[in-house]
Amino acid sequence: MRTLIDIVEMQSMADGLRKQGNRIGFVPTMGFFHEGHLSLMRKAKELSDVVVVSLFVNPAQFGPGEDFEEYPRDEERDSMLAMKNGCDVLFVPGVEGMYPKGYATYVQVNDLSTVLCGASRPGHFQGVTTVVTKLFNIVKPHVAIFGQKDAQQAIIIRRIAEDLNYGVDIVIAPIVRESDGLAMSSRNMYLNRKERAEAVVLHQSLLEAEKLIAAGERRAHVIREAMKSLITAKDSARIDYVSILDADTLQPLDLLQGRILIALAVRFGKARLIDNTIMTC
Ligand code: AMP
């Protein structure tokens, strides 16, 4: 595995790989790897000849007062895990390289970016779509793998890839969970023992929703209320949102029909955790 820091070097390596007929698979990450990230790398290996993983804690997607400074980082451990899970090139650009003095260009996806996490974190998705655009121009992948864990991000990335003719196949891989159901996240390390135990309610509330839907319930407010009452029963939980939407347009639904996304964001202490499920009704 090679580690590159320099943007121009990464670009010329990508050009060379393409010229030799290699298919480049790409996994963008902010590091502090867990099994969720590693599953994306292994998927990329299946789908391509050369796997590039980027490790960049992107300041543009953190708002003022968010956890950019405290976000967990461990490049040495990440490097070892990436190597063992199929990564051929680890790309670790610096903030000054990605956003030099005078940087002024941002990519904005309308509508999809202003609901759910976009409503609670203004500017977050502009930061995501901007960095993904830059990384695609640097890594020049044929296929890029994202996690279903960040469902809204996945939908938005599909949208820009199509709208801006990126020519990159976007693959969405399933959510990897801890054995008790908590979705793996780099931010789980912020949880204290009590919060960690209570955070399992996120997955439990999604399972409850699935159960109600399987029993024939189609009224979104009934399902949302059932989920909310499970979550608010936990001392440390503070709901940001519990939403039921069309899985393609992110329009909120009153009555469930078609492919639906049930998404939630809940704070436990200083950790803001998200989870979701997609179902067809
Ligand atoms: P992050 O480092 O948190 O920006 O995540 C990098 C990629 O890993 C994104 O595409 C995430 O959706 C994905 N990811 C994060 N957590 C999980 C998980 N538990 N299961 C599957 N994919 C995940």
Q: Assembly type of the shown chains?
A: single chain
CATH level 4 superfamily of the largest domain: HUPs
Question: What is the CATH class of the largest domain?
Answer: Alpha Beta
Please outline the major beta sheet. 6 strands, parallel
In which order are the strands of the major sheet placed? 1-4-3-2-5-6
Q: Low-confidence stretches at least 5 residues in length (pLDDT < 50)?
A: none
Detail the topology: elements first, then pairings.
Elements: E1 2-4, H1 7-19, E2 24-29, H2 35-47, E3 50-55, H3 75-84, E4 89-91, H4 95-98, H5 117-120, H6 124-139, E5 143-147, H7 151-163, E6 169-173, H8 193-198, H9 201-214, H10 220-232, E7 237-246, E8 259-268, E9 271-280
Parallel strand pairs: 1-4, 2-3, 2-5, 3-4, 5-6
Antiparallel strand pairs: 7-8, 8-9
Helix pairs in contact: 6-7, 9-10
The structure holds adenosine monophosphate.
Q: Could you describe the 3D structure shown?
A:
It contains ten helices and nine strands. It has 281 residues and is α/β, with parallel strands linked by helices. The radius of gyration is 19 Å and the shape is globular. It has two domains: 2-173, 3-Layer(aba) Sandwich (Rossmann fold); 186-276, Pantoate-beta-alanine ligase, C-terminal domain (Pantoate--beta-alanine Ligase, Chain: A,domain 2, 2-Layer Sandwich). The strands form two sheets. It has a six-stranded parallel sheet, sandwiched between helices. The mean pLDDT is 98. Helix 6 crosses helix 7 and helix 9 (201-214) packs antiparallel against helix 10. It binds adenosine monophosphate.
